[in-house]
Amino acid sequence: MMDNNNIEANETEMSMQDLMDLYEKPVRIGQIIKGKIIQLDEKEAIVALVGASHDGKLVIEEASAGSDGTLAEVLQLGQEIEAKVIRRPQENDSFFILSMVEMHREEAIRDLRAAFENNQTVKVKVKDDVKGGVVASYLGQRVFIPASHLELHSVRDLSVYKDQELDVNVIEIEEKRGTTRIVASRRKKLQEDRASQESAAWEGFVVGQIMEGRVERLTDFGAFVNVNGVDGLLHVSEISYGKVAKPSDVLKVGDEVKVKVIALDNEKKRLSLSMKALAENPWNHIEEKYPEGSVVLGKVVRFTDFGAFIELEPGVDGLAHISQLSHKRVETPSEVLTIGETVKVKILDSSEENKKVSLSLKAIE
Predict the structure, then answer these.
(1) 201-237 as b/e, with b when 16 or more CB fall inside 10 Å?
(2) The model's pTM
(3) 128, 177: one domain
(4) Predicted confidence (pLDDT) per residue in 241-292, tens digit
(5) What domain range is 305 assigned to?
(6) Phi, psi (rounded to 5 degrees) for 96
(7) Are 171 and 145 in contact (CB under 8 A)?
């Protein structure tokens, strides 16, 4: 029967033999090796390597891809790490040179290839803008995102994406001359997000609903306002009770506006909005605002063969019949009035029901 001293001696002997076996195996370039950080400053770490005849050196650039801080922010003294050997000891430097970045790059390519094959998204960080797109990084691996794949709309200033984290789909992987080219797209993720958002939004829309929106596009016939991810049409006639020649006269892209849902078609995905519906109808209580016999100021806005229309307030135009323009005979309104001119008129009659105000200039001459 073996005593305890013999057992301990045997275990010690085996342990030493195992260690010797490790040191007899040469450390290869590209090998993943384990070690413990025994010295650390802002720029580099010294690593005691398992199974190697020399310690390893890890500089900040090889510790973390794109790190702009100190090494102490990335690693800790006494920490056990794994890294790839990228240079053997030389005469002027007796350390193995290590890289965690290169080790992670292999992992990154595996991840990106799996994402490509399984149609999954990955999160990348944009490092710089270049001609035709931006360059991003995934665990140190370069990923190119074409400008046309950054948004659902065209992008002019690519510099705004620098340092942003983006969820992307890998759309191309090309192995060429020992390098791996990765191309990614953000469009698909944005399209899926928009579709999901729009689907939820359509379920919640109700006629009469009042919402906050953002002006996305302007046309001659109206403005497209985004509410809850859906672009609804704000027709030019629904912007104001006053006369609006074209939407760009009162709105600009990016404006935040309050709108009311006045019609919706879930099947055709059409949403009609109104700003005018949120304002008080100027014809309400028109008899009280403009009682018969009162004298007011108005602006000449248009002519007809039978008279001139004079705006009393936005949305309320009164008619001064040609026979009421002057005590003299008038053939056309332009003989006595000018478009845009401010004139004093007398209220002859006003009707909320008929949305009509009759005016006279000659009554105050």
Answers:
(1) beeebeeeeebebebeebeeebbbbebbebbbbbbbe
(2) 0.51
(3) yes
(4) 888 889 999 999 999 999 999 999 988 889 999 999 998 889 999 999 999 9
(5) 286-364
(6) -75, 130
(7) no
